[in-house]
């Protein structure tokens, strides 16, 4: 009997315990005493007898060798305690998938380290009902997933921490530039913490803010953790932007301040993504929404908010900023063409935005109107002296937009203008206005090394860059009079011999303005890609390249000894511009093609190889029709259209021209008569593929070897001048006849 019991006991040692609380079924079936259950704490009354033991991926060396289950307890597991063996754990006992799940998406404290999709997949890995094959496939999906997958989901993340990170990226990178600082950050964050996040799936403004923030979140990840292709960075959050536009259009009849803010940001997002037709249509929607809300007027006469009734200080200032943002947007789309401009500044009766500090701190302020020195007639008299001091960078940018709007209108109506060298001409007046604006900038807005780092510390360096780039871009547009062979002006002036010095003066300022653009962009690019976030910068950078190449190949004698130093300097500017365009690819779709054509333009010019070609070396027109190749500037092409359209006076890179190219059923009165007989199949294109076709066509058109047509953004094309107007270009004299030209600090 004792021998039988011993044999049974030996068999019992081989029975695998299922560790059921109170005794396992295997031992009970064999009528054996469960050693594990006996040594475990007894189940208390009321506890579930079906509770599962927590699974673990840690196994000691002894259990792994015996192929026995290990509880993973430290310093000793239960089995080693019973066997009285040495319990040793290896240093690296965690499987690979745990390291993937715990990898951080960013080095900053509190940042999410993996996506909700990964969390769900990882939890399924240890699920007992999965087969071994299913578990292997799930682990493979986890290993191939990215910590940024949550930025590509269809809906906003449920985690408020993640939403907060995206919102912070928006306020750090998008809000400061140009005229987008209309959302009061403290108030918005408060709304986010008090219920907005729970209703996020129906909030268009939050969706587009997160979509824009996702691009910069991914850009920072690409710089610090793992490199991501520029196109992938650009596409982050695209589903949220689509949701934002859908929500705005679904509630089109319900015009709200939040929806207007969302529409403005959607317009800028469309420009970044290269969806120009979408941006063009959204621009008109913003104008109608401002009219419906009537934010072109002050809410009431209580500017300093001394009365308790009505809107708060923050709400009033936010609406003013929103109105001026719509004005700047309309001026950008209109480009000086009356037919495309929907908003007139004479109907805007609100004061300019106050300083960002006052807006952030909710300090009521009196500022000037668009006209310098003017204030609201019902503003307190005691506040008039402080009006100019209360204005910040946004106010000065809006004043520049008003000047630029007049410059673009003037350059498109040269047939109605006075001769530019006359002292009372429109050209002289606009020149004086540009000069007065530049000199009115306070010391805190100068582009100097100290101010650069001050603005960088407050995330406003990008705004400072755009402010100064806009000024020199306007200077290039105004002084294009000196290069009718470069810009197809509608009616170029004929400069008589006695105005030779004046003509050389215009050429030099045009070239110097292009160089100043290159210097500003290069300095800003050294502080990171996010500082080049403005959607206008790629076109401005590209224009700077074309002007400099034109000057070096057509204006000066490249073989002269005194020109070699200038060519070396210009080559450095061209290379920094191209480098900046490469950095902009992650935030602007058009930067890729513009960078490619700039490199081709530099190579063809021969500046880099010091063998400058002067015959027909005029930089490429990015959107010239192939039918126009080889046309003489003094001879109208055959089949000149009898109807004039905005296409004939706008640059190919203007929003309207780019939008028109993506409209499949557009009328084309601007085309020549030779194309009238084209078939319907040639005219009507597949609208579903039109956005991708734009990017493909742009690359092809940029590479066309044109001999005449090219010009910077928002400039006139379609010349009606005759050959007599095109005088030979001579070198620029060394004497500086332009005493008022602003001197760039880094020149």
UniProtKB/TrEMBL annotation:
Cell compartment(s), UniProt: Nucleus
Residue ranges with Polar residues bias: 110-130
Name of this protein: Zn(2)-C6 fungal-type domain-containing protein
Pro residues biased stretches: 635-644
SUPFAM superfamilies listed in its UniProt record: Zn2/Cys6 DNA-binding domain (SSF57701)
Keyword vocabulary terms for this entry: DNA-binding, Metal-binding, Nucleus, Transcription, Transcription regulation
Species of the source: Aspergillus ruber (strain CBS 135680)
GO molecular function term, any single one: zinc ion binding
InterPro entries: TF_fung, XnlR_reg_dom, Zn2-C6_fun-type_DNA-bd_sf, Zn2Cys6_DnaBD
Entry annotated with the keyword rRNA-binding: no
């Amino acid at each position: 009997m004792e021998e039988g019991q011993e044999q049974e006991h030996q068999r019992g040692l081989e029975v695998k315990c299922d560790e059921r609380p109170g005794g396992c079924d295997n031992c009970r079936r064999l009528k054996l005493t469960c050693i594990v259950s006996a040594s475990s704490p007894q189940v208390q009354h009321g506890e579930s007898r079906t509770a599962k033991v927590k699974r673990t991926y840690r196994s000691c060396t002894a259990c792994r060798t015996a192929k026995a289950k290990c509880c993973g307890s430290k310093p000793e597991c239960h089995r080693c305690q019973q066997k009285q063996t040495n319990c040793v754990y290896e240093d690296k006992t965690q499987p690979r998938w745990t390291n993937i799940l715990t990898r951080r998406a960013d080095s900053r404290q509190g940042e999410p380290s993996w996506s909700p999709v990964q969390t769900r997949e990882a939890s399924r890995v240890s699920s007992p009902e999965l087969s071994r094959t299913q578990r292997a496939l799930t682990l493979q999906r986890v290993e191939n997933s990215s910590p940024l997958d949550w930025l590509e989901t269809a809906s906003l993340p449920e985690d408020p921490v993640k939403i907060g990170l995206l919102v912070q990226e928006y306020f750090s990178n998008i809000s400061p530039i140009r005229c987008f600082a209309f959302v009061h950050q403290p108030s918005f964050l408060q709304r986010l913490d008090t219920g907005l996040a729970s209703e996020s799936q129906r909030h268009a403004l939050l969706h587009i803010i997160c979509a824009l923030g996702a691009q910069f979140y991914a850009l920072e990840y690409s710089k610090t953790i793992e490199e991501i292709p520029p196109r992938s960075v650009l596409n982050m959050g695209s589903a949220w932007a689509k949701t934002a536009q859908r929500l705005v259009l679904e509630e089109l009849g319900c015009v709200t301040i939040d929806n207007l803010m969302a529409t403005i940001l959607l317009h800028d997002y469309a420009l970044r993504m290269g969806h120009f037709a979408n941006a063009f249509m959204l621009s008109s929607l913003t104008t109608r929404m401002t009219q419906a809300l009537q934010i072109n007027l002050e809410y009431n006469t209580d500017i300093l908010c001394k009365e308790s009734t009505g809107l708060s200080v923050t709400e009033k200032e936010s609406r003013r900023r929103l109105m001026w943002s719509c004005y700047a947007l309309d001026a950008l789309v209109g480009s000086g063409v009356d037919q495309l401009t929907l908003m007139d500044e004479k109907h805007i009766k609100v004061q300019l935005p106050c300083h960002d500090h006052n807006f952030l701190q909710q300090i009521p302020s009196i500022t000037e109107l668009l006209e310098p020195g003017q204030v609201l007639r019902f503003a307190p008299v005691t506040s008039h002296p402080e009006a100019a001091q209360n204005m910040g960078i946004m106010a000065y940018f809006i004043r520049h937009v008003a000047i630029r709007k007049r410059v673009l209108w003037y350059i498109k109506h040269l047939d109605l203008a006075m001769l530019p060298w006359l002292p009372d001409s429109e050209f002289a007046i606009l020149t004086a206005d540009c000069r007065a604006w530049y000199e009115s900038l306070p010391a805190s807005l100068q582009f100097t090394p100290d101010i650069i780092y001050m603005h960088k510390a407050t995330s406003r360096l990008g705004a400072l860059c755009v402010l100064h780039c806009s000024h020199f871009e306007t200077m290039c547009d105004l002084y294009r009079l000196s290069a009718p062979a470069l810009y197809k002006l509608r009616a170029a002036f004929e400069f008589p011999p006695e105005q030779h010095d004046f003509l050389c003066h215009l050429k030099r300022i045009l070239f110097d303005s292009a160089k100043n653009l290159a210097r500003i962009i290069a300095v800003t690019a050294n502080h990171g890609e996010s500082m080049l976030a403005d959607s206008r910068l790629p076109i401005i950078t590209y224009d700077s390249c074309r002007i400099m190449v034109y000057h070096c190949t057509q204006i000066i004698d490249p073989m002269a000894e005194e020109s070699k130093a200038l060519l070396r300097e210009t080559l450095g500017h061209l290379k920094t511009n191209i480098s900046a365009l490469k950095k902009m690819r992650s935030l602007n779709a058009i930067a890729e093609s513009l960078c490619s054509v700039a490199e081709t333009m530099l190579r063809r010019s021969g500046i880099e190889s010091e063998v400058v070609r002067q015959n027909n070396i005029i930089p490429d027109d990015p959107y010239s029709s192939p039918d126009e190749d080889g046309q003489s500037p003094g001879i109208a092409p055959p089949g000149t259209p009898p109807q004039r359209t905005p296409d004939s006076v706008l640059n190919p890179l203007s929003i309207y021209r780019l939008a028109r190219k993506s409209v499949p059923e557009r009328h084309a009165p601007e085309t020549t008569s030779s194309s009238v007989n084209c078939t319907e199949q040639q005219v009507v294109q597949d609208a579903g593929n039109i956005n991708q076709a734009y990017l493909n066509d742009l690359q092809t058109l940029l590479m066309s070897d044109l001999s005449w047509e090219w010009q910077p953004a928002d400039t006139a094309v379609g010349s009606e001048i005759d050959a007599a107007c095109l005088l030979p270009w001579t070198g620029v004299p060394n004497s500086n006849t332009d005493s008022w030209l602003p001197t760039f600090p880094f020149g």
